[in-house]
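Worked example (supplementary).
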Amino acid sequence: MEETFVTENYLNMDLLRFTTAGSVDDGKSTLIGRLLYDSKSIFEDQMEAIEKTSAQKGHGYVNLALLTDGLRAEREQGITIDVAYRYFATPKRKFIVADTPGHIQYTRNMVTGASTANLAIILVDARHGIIEQTCRHSFIASLLQIKHIVLCVNKMDLVDYSQEVFDKIVAKYKDFSKTLEVPDIHFLPISALNGDNVVDKSTNMPWYKGRTLLETLESVEIENDYNFVDARFPVQYVIRPMNEEFHDYRGFAGKVESGVFKPGDAIVALPSGKESTIKSIDFFGKHLDQAFPPQSVTLTLKDNIDISRGDMIVKKDHLPTVSQDVELMVCWLSEKKLVPGGKYVVRHTSKEAKAIIKDVKYKVNINTLETNEEDKTIGLNDIARIVIKTASPLSYDSYKNNRTIGSLIIVDEFTNETVGAGMIV
Amino acid sequence: MKLTHLQQLEAEAIHIMREVVAQFERPALLFSGGKDSICLVKLAEKAFWPAKIPFPLVHIDTGHNFPEAIAYRDELVARTGATLIIGHVEDSIARGTAVEEKGPNPSRNTLQTVTLLETIEKYKFDACFGGARRDEEKARAKERFFSHRDEFGQWDPKNQRPELWNLYNGKKAVGEHFRVFPISNWTEMDVWQYIASENIPIPSIYFTHQREIVERDGQLLANSPFITVMPGEKVETRTVRFRTVGDMTCTGAIASEASTMDEIIQEVATLRVTERGTRADDKRSEAAMEDRKKAGYF
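After joint prediction of all chains, the assembly is encoded as:
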């Protein structure tokens, strides 16, 4: 990084969160290592440490995969246990990578990593093409409403950089992906080990005219991934300074999850249905003229209506569903199986409510995408459609229209563990 | 309508702080005087304005502090009107719950964990904010925003709660607590850019100065009453600054002439060693951080 660092550029960068998926030997860790290494995000001491370990283990090359193994047990067993987060930046964007392991508990980890991602990189081995796992990863990405998939056909060096092999895989994936709800899919032939088309354009594949992986990550349009239509402001906390200067101040602190709020907007507080008007949008001494996702701000209202944590401030024109009955796709995250008829706690936006599992409609076989209405045993890594009833009403949108207002987690009342991830249908 | 990455990170951190204040009864902010915890204080001011920061700042004082960091801490407390609680490692040593290490390089780093847990217990804190970032160290890359600690204050990396969307599960049994890391997703550069763009004052040791230095195992340690100069070691005055603020016995300086925020940022952009590379406490073994974290470290 010899060039002068330009702060102005840095302050104009946007943020892309992506997740990576691939089966165990698809070269996922190598790819991430390559991105970090070629974008100069690896420091000398980190590099020295993995060079040392690679040599000790007798690897023939510096094993970039070692960069991502954070825990002792992982280094010892050569596996990755949990989602790890990596960071790198180019002059255009900052990237947050949710690196999810490719073996056991895969679904749970990928769902976790995908829940905050704008984009998913799905790796396939050029020698094996589209396999069951590719379909599973794509289904999860689609279920989690990731709008952008980059299908990287890796290990092109092992198929003589053949365009024919690449084209066949692309054709097959295009056919399969018609069943998905992913609007934007990119296809790239790469070799993570050698760096072909990762950061630098490959000289081995002159037939490929498209962007490299890094260029793709830098240029994917993510601005419209937010829902700017349905104004939703879950109240997290009520700010009451109770001092001389701000004697009567009552501010509703929260994050704009979707839509746009402006002073003067007519609002409705849910679930009470009480109405008022936005007096000001405050942020650390400033009055803003609008607030949009994902800003954290404080709203004050013209009328003194009763609003507390767990309530939602919305605009009248696009109301969410307010109901105690919620139907959702759930990914089960716990070894302890889902108990039909069991009582749980759900956390939805800033609200917490007791809930009962009313029905399990079907389980999805994530390898074939077939639904099974007979087998209703929902255990770790299973994905199912269920119906719950909550003790007090939730204000929600469908996950498809609104990723934050349409998602919830299910918590075990006794162990306090997070046991389910729900996407409202 | 678009936020820069720094604005997004700020919004995320504020959201997390507000969640903590709403979900827990007795939160506290672990304040070291370092740049990361300085950022946390700024974020807390922003999250709750116009109210004051609704939780105390807790400083675990090893007794081996840079005086500049202590002066800074006291000014900050006066300026923000925040409550300050100090836990002294000396007190733990006096009580016999912690025992000073032997040797020329006694670190109070492990002892700090004892005092931290004792302070948490004494004040019954149920959630402690920390300024740890995932880019700092590989064990930290696996850390959650809401990190559950059992009744012994321990972290179990293999049994962490999955964290989805921006829903944070702070439920716990009696005696357990949480560590919360609002700036998990920030990098060192993000922190510096934030400090620069918000004009946040920082302790003077971050800027270049002349200081007596002892070079030990490739590290530039500040000469102080807390370290023993070994035969063959030289004390020399060098032009240095610090990249992190920790215990004087284990925080290494770097040779630097950076005297302004802008120069620091330029330097950080070109540095090729991680900031924890200047910390002797991390060099003890490959899993040094993991082990300390499991025991209840920051």
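Two points are worth noting when inspecting this output. The first strand of chain A starts at residue 14 and ends at 21. The first helix of chain A runs from residue 7 to 11.
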